[in-house]
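User: Design a sequence. Structure:
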């Protein structure tokens, strides 16, 4: 079962490949995606990394939360399920 991690405060220079590369040192990354504005294509400043196991996801949170990426401290946490936002 995949575990999704939220990554906030991304620099606008970050792309999917940078996210995958930086987070892959914590375990097997199934996918990494920087969320972009559908009209401009510009990064919205956050993204998601999906790991194949819980231990890798937790290690990435511990290892990357607060760490700088291009001068911006990242906010890394377990992603909330989409259904949780509707409650």
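Assistant: Done.
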């Amino acid at each position: 079962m995949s575990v999704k991690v939220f990554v906030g405060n991304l620099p606008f220079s970050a792309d999917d490949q940078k996210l995958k590369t930086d987070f892959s040192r914590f375990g097997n990354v199934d996918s990494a995606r920087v969320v972009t504005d559908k009209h401009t294509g510009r990064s919205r400043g956050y993204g998601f990394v999906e790991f194949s196991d819980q231990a890798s996801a937790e290690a990435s949170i511990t290892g990357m939360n607060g760490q700088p990426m291009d001068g911006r401290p990242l906010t890394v946490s377990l992603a909330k399920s989409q259904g949780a936002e509707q409650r």
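Residues 23 and 87 are 31 Å apart (CA to CA). Helices lie at 16-23, 54-64.
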